[in-house]
Write a structure and sequence with these properties.
- This protein is an alpha+beta fold.
- 38% of the residues lie in helices and 28% in strands.
- A hairpin with a 5-residue loop joins strand 4 and strand 5.
- Helix 1 packs across helix 2 and helix 3 packs across helix 4.
- The N and C termini lie far apart (53 Å).
- The mean pLDDT is 92.
């Protein structure tokens, strides 16, 4: 098995067939970032879904005062830029590497096509995406509670 296929199997953390893994491997690539590199910016078109292979990526929101507030930190195995899989496919945060980071970049449009064909895989993947969204909403609620007390 190739390194990318091994990483997909490990980090997707869902029941996925070898055939589906091989298809996803075809439109996936490893990307390396340095500390303080910006992976994506707010309001950009989200074309790639990421899995964190190593390192750390802070998910930040731009506040009205111009400062950025970290709402989540993605570590090994976490998903990043879920908006690549959810319309309107536009990022609503900023992704900044806290340390040297390796990400597995997966073409979001092609991954969605796989989800439509392999619906069991698609269900499991989107359930994980929903968990990430829930975690971010909880973090936002805590922040709002903090600023409103």
């Amino acid at each position: 098995m190739s390194r990318i296929k091994d990483l997909l199997a490990e980090h997707l953390n869902v029941d996925v067939s070898q055939e589906t893994l091989e298809k996803i491997e075809q439109f996936s690539e490893l990307k390396n970032f340095s500390a303080n590199d910006i992976v994506y910016r707010e309001h950009e078109n989200s074309k790639h879904f990421y899995l964190v292979v190593s390192g750390q990526v802070d998910v930040q929101y731009l506040m009205k005062n111009g400062r950025r507030k970290t709402m989540d930190t993605c570590l090994k195995g976490d998903q990043l830029l879920w908006s690549a899989l959810v319309e309107p496919h536009e990022s609503n945060s900023i992704g900044i590497c806290r340390a040297e980071t390796e990400l597995l970049s997966i073409d979001g449009e092609k991954l969605l096509e796989i989800c439509q064909k392999d619906t069991a895989f698609g269900f499991h993947l989107m359930s994980r995406v929903a968990s990430v969204i829930r975690r971010r909403l909880q973090a936002t609620r805590k922040l709002l509670t903090f600023y409103n007390t």
